[in-house]
Amino acid sequence: MAPLKVLSVASEAVPLVKTGGLADVVGALPAALEPHGVEMTTLLPGYPAVMQALGRGRAVHAWDSLLGAPARLLAGKLDGGYPLLVLDAPALYAREGGPYSDVAGRDWPDNWRRFAALGRAAAEIACGAIVQGGEARHFDLLHAHDWQGAMAAAYLRYAPMNERVPAIVTIHNMAFQGWFDREVFAQLGLPASAWAIDGVEYHGGIGMLKAGLSCADAVTTVSPTYAREIRSTTFGMGLEGLVAARGNAVRGILNGIDTDLWNPAGDTALTARYTNRTLERRLLNKRALEAEFGLAESDGPLFIVVSRLTWQKGMDVLSGVIDHLVGIGGRLALLGAGEASIEQALRAAAARHPERIGIRIHYDEQLSHRMLGGGDAILIPSRFEPCGLTQLYGLAYGCLPVVSRTGGLADTVIDANPAALAAGCATGVQFDGVSYDALISALTRTVALYDQHQVWRRIQKNAMKCDFSWKASGASYADLYRSLTA
After folding, report:
1. Which of 260, 274, 254 has its CA nearest to residue 461?
2. Of 4, 103, 158, 255, which is most buried with the most CB atoms under 10 A?
């Protein structure tokens, strides 16, 4: 049977460009799907970092004007040899700063054009409008990610194309929707019929994610619980009615992790590598981590945080419970950056508790590995979490997750309640509601579990036995693709 040919369009993918978990997922999908008879090609914008990694590339198409900008399509390879296409449009992407904002953190004012052009190009490529080597290259399906890729589904529905192929839109975070003023509609190259409640119009402007959710043949989220949550006003961010109206077209497929990269048995970032049978070696990593963060050595629990320091992640509540954490014998090593007020509160807590609280206001991938290998528990008090990856890394490293019961956190962590402990299946601690009292209760319960050495060790072993590789998730995506192309 010939492999399914799928075009994946996104604004970032590891190892070329990353601002968050979206990049990890997009970068992992080609390898995850290959065993299931799917050949995935990834389309990315030609940011400077992507162009540098691509090298010269091979030009396979050119547009004199792609939404007003000249552009070329370059072909190359991702890590692992998987096909890569890059939209080289210097007027749109050749800029200093990040993928979405300038060096001062301000959104690019023409983000609507930059990502509508990406969607337009993706739709043309998927439908065989791009000629390579004298013949059109066809895809069986288009898979778009978040608002930056979602307009591809709208172009497939409304713009003249050689043929129509099915489209999937994956929501990695409903909070980011890509809304722009109505005045840009005339420049999108869409017919007047697209300006409709079931098209691109949203609250009097252009809603890019909304357009994708309306026009896609199927919508996925990155966990089953999040697929249910976004039908509510609490998590739907204004789009809950549309999500509910799409019915069974919306489903959740849990993210996986790269179990070669995130594996304490082979992780060269660690002072001591270990397995679930050699957990005593984690103490060497703990001592090294204490030294790196300037913490006093202790046999008490060492909590870690690796996170964006934002309201969504519950970091404002965390900053308020640090005195309690220290008071019950805990210590904290934190890595992240975000809202200035939260950063200031955390620095003040570190100043109040020298050698008990260590703060690093930046991000360092290798340090995050060392923290997972040496920390006892990882705190993730998110108000909402579409999937989350850090709790999966924590499980893999025996750094037990302490999480709010939401989204993918609820789907991946088994609370150490009496029933789960008796059944021998607990993998962490869950709590309801991101509040001062709820988090204090969870911390107190975690320390009580930690003080029961045999119980804690059993939970660690349970966690490390969990399989959150891409094996099951890759099969689920492949099944969905085939259901849409049958």
Report:
1. 274
2. 255
Backbone CA torsion sign across 380, 385, 390, 391 = positive
Cβ neighbors of 196 (< 8 A, separation 6 or more) are none
CA atoms of 45 and 69, how far apart (whole Å): 13
* HEC per residue, the chain: CCCEEEEEECCCECCCECCCHHHHHHHHHHHHHHHHCEEEEEEEECCHHHHHHHCCCEEEEEEEEECCEEEEEEEEECCCCCEEEEEECHHHHCCCCCCCECCCCCECCCHHHHHHHHHHHHHHHHCCCCEECCEECCCCEEEEEHHHHHHHHHHHHHCCCCCCCCEEEEECCCCCCCEECHHHHHHCCCCHHHCCCCCCEECCEEEHHHHHHHHCCEEEECCHHHHHHCCCHHHHCCCHHHHHHHHHHEEECCCCCCCCCCCCCCCCCCCCCCCCCCHHHHHHHHHHHHHHCCCCCCCCCEEEEECCECCCCCHHHHHHCHHHHHHCCCEEEEECCECHHHHHHHHHHHHHCCCCEEEECCCCHHHHHHHHHHCCEEEECCCCCCCCCHHHHHHHHCCEEEEECCHHHHHHCCECCHHHHHHCCCCEEEECCCCHHHHHHHHHHHHHHHCCHHHHHHHHHHHHHCCCCCHHHHHHHHHHHHHHHC
CA distances from 326 to 61, 438, 441 (A): 60, 17, 14
For residue 1, what pLDDT is reported?
73
Contact indicator for 113, 187 with CB cutoff of 8 Å: yes
Span between the terminal Cα atoms of the chain, in Å: 13
**pTM for this one?**
0.93
**Beta-carbon count within 10 A of 468 CB:** 20
Which CA distances in Å does 72 have to 79, 89, 249, 416? 22, 6, 34, 54
Q: Does residue 193 contact residue 181 with C-beta atoms inside 8 Å?
A: no
In this prediction, residue 160 has a pLDDT band, given cuts at 50, 70 and 90, of confident
| Residue 240 pLDDT greater than 60, yes or no | yes
**DSSP-assigned beta bridge partners for residue 63:** 71
Do the beta carbons of residue 369 and residue 346 sit within 8 Å?
no
Q: Is pLDDT at 183 greater than 60 in this prediction?
A: yes
Q: Is the pLDDT of residue 134 over 60?
A: no
Single-letter residue type at 31: A
Contacts of 252 (CB under 8 A, 6+ apart): 220, 221, 222, 223, 224, 225, 226, 227, 228, 411
The full set of domains in the chain, from first to last, is 4-256+470-485 (3.40.50.2000), 279-465 (3.40.50.2000)
Q: What is the pLDDT of residue 132?
A: 60
